[in-house]
Design a protein that fits this description.
Layout: H1 2-7, H2 10-23, E1 31-32, E2 35-36, H3 43-54, H4 56-70, H5 86-107
Antiparallel strand pairs: 1-2
Helix pairs in contact: 2-3, 2-4, 3-4, 3-5, 4-5
């Protein structure tokens, strides 16, 4: 994650944003009551949130990619390729979306 954080500029981030958001599904995060156990976000989510707060165009893209992932209509009993229940993945996307909206309301209150 440090390599991406230190080398990816906003232009490159725009190009790979979808793949980064989709990569969140492979993070090893356990949820309890819709929040990560231990209360710490994964590095990838923290990176996306930080970049979203810094740049409204990034925030816009991350918002819509997270929104679409959390609204994905896979059947709840379907599993990801790695065996995760999709409901758990969707729950994490909902959490990520909520974190983004909270961060944006704090930093861009007029646009929320």
């Amino acid at each position: 994650m440090d390599a991406i954080r230190n080398t990816v500029d906003e232009e490159i981030l725009q190009l790979i944003m979808l793949q980064l958001v989709q990569a969140l599904r492979y993070e090893d995060i356990e949820l309890e009551n819709g929040k990560p156990i231990g209360g710490k976000d994964c590095d990838l989510l923290s990176f996306l949130l930080d970049k979203s707060v810094e740049n409204e165009q990034i925030a816009h893209g991350v918002h819509w990619h997270l929104y679409l992932e959390k609204e994905n209509k896979m059947k709840d009993n379907e599993k990801e390729n790695d065996g995760k229940d999709y409901e758990m993945v969707r729950e994490y996307y909902q959490y990520a979306y909520d974190q983004l909206m909270s961060a944006l309301e704090t930093d861009f209150p007029e646009s929320a």
